[in-house]
Amino acid sequence: MAVGLSVTMASATAKAETPVRLPRDLAEALAAAQSDLEGGRPAEVIRRLSAFQGQDHALRHLLLGHAYVRQSDLPQAARAYQDALAIDGSMKEAGVALAQVRARQRQWARAAELLGQFTSPDTCEADLLLLYAEAARQLNDRRLSDLLVRKGILRFPHDRRFRRLDLALGIDAADHPGTRRAAMHLLAADPTDATLWQHVALAEAAAHADARQIAALEASLLCDPSDLVRHRQFLAAELAAGNWPTVVSHGRSLLEGPLGKDASADPGTLELLLAAADIGQQDDILAAWLDRVPEKAHTRAMHLVAARLALRQGKTKAARETLARLIEAGETGPAVFLWAGHLAETAQDWPEAETLYRHAWTFEGSPSSLATL
């Protein structure tokens, strides 16, 4: 948020209406520097005002600070504004400009202190009020930041930046009702913002409002169907709600669409689709989706799904081989050893069954105790 750079030959103190009597050479130097600044020549401003040998004035340092800001030389800009304040401690424009520099340097405590000294939340412009609220937020002063944001919403009801900061404050504090409220206010003006719908979905999830969470995720997805992450979040919510047919249907469209290659290469997305097809015993679809991933790239979840599919197809040997590969890869879950042991026992492979059961017995927890039966 840049401070206005217009400098007139009027007092920059609290009594701004009172004309300033300046020596002619200083007035001419300041006027020329102002012209250079407006013309985009900050280096010329610095050269001109640094070389000035006449009577000093806070306005000279103020313009120098503005020129350094234009050059992104924040340390020099800060020094110039401090010099201006050393000459005229009530120069509001220098105090505000220094606050903005400190904010850009992420010196939030000093920025907030200066804004509190040189601005009034009841009368300052929106940019400064927003900066003050952000500084308070960065300092984790929730009470002050909330107060300033509410002030901004009341004074500038059409400035969406205050609503967005209100949203950020809600997210920071894990205030889910507040987050939802702020997001819905913003969505009233722009219902196509996918990220806002995601914030609503998170708030609904925290409130255990599953149906509303899914609706918000679906809205987010409709706003930005090219984002695979949004598809994955929607699929996860639908699966958690037990809506496996929806997941399978959506998965078929996803894998056949422009994101199909990316979705196939994303283990998280594919695991959700495989889980839904497995729950619904949609075995033809399940087999086709498993074939999208080379066997050597199968995750643990994919191996387990493949083993269940093999058993449903009557391929006990294939199921045992799948579990064996999982165990060879370092499986540490006793349930897998128990399952593999049971299959070995069913096949009357007694030595293998005993070995697997003994392995299961070495793990802690209730599942491993079943190996003694």
Given the C-alpha coordinates, what overall shape results?
elongated
Outline the biggest β-sheet. none
Figure out the total of helices.
Answer: 22
- Rounded to the nearest angstrom, the distance between the terminal CA atoms is 72 Å
Strand content: under 5%
Structural class: mainly alpha
CATH top level of the domain at 1-105 is Mainly Alpha
CATH-assigned homologous superfamily of the domain at 1-105: Tetratricopeptide repeat domain
Average pLDDT confidence is: 92
Rg (C-alpha, Å): 33 Å
Structure description:
The protein has 373 residues and is mainly alpha-helical. The chain has a domain at 1-105: Serine Threonine Protein Phosphatase 5, Tetratricopeptide repeat. Helix 7 (126-138) runs parallel beside helix 9 (160-172). The longest helix has 15 residues, at 24-38. The termini are far apart. The chain has helices spanning 24-38, 42-50, 58-70, 74-87, 92-104, 108-118, 126-138, 142-155, 160-172, 176-189, 194-206, 210-223, 228-240, 244-256, 260-264, 267-279, 283-290, 300-312, 316-328, 334-346, 350-361, 366-369. 71% of the residues lie in helices and 0% in strands.
Secondary structure elements and pairings:
Blueprint: H1 24-38, H2 42-50, H3 58-70, H4 74-87, H5 92-104, H6 108-118, H7 126-138, H8 142-155, H9 160-172, H10 176-189, H11 194-206, H12 210-223, H13 228-240, H14 244-256, H15 260-264, H16 267-279, H17 283-290, H18 300-312, H19 316-328, H20 334-346, H21 350-361, H22 366-369
Helix pairs in contact: 1-2, 1-3, 2-3, 3-4, 3-5, 4-5, 5-6, 6-7, 7-8, 7-9, 8-9, 9-10, 10-11, 11-12, 12-13, 13-14, 13-16, 14-16, 16-17, 16-18, 17-18, 18-19, 19-20, 20-21
